[in-house]
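Colleagues,

For the teaching module next term, I've prepared a clean inverse folding example: a structure given as tokens, and then the sequence designed for it. I'd like students to try predicting residues themselves before seeing the answer, so please don't circulate the second half yet.
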């Protein structure tokens, strides 16, 4: 059973980049994919710095882009969950 984490994946990745720990962001997303019964080796994981949405405490957020290496489309639900706002 996975433990409950009050922070979304996007929030965690944004904090990692803000704290200079972006090196670990790829591993964090790969672990998240495993938790969602996906093989991380099937995906190319890209990070994009974007302005934070209005009303957010953050100035910037990191958007996570998932691309399947086999050319198939990424499940829209999975992509949405990766970038879910709190």
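(Answer key — instructors only)
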């Amino acid at each position: 059973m996975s433990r409950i984490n009050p922070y979304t994946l996007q929030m965690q990745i944004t904090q990692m980049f803000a704290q200079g720990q972006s090196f670990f962001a790829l591993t964090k997303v790969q672990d998240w994919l495993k938790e969602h019964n996906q093989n991380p080796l099937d995906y190319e994981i890209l990070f994009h710095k974007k302005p934070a949405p209005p009303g957010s405490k953050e100035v910037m957020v990191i958007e996570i882009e998932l691309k399947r290496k086999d050319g198939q489309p990424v499940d829209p639900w999975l992509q949405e969950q990766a970038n879910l706002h709190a």
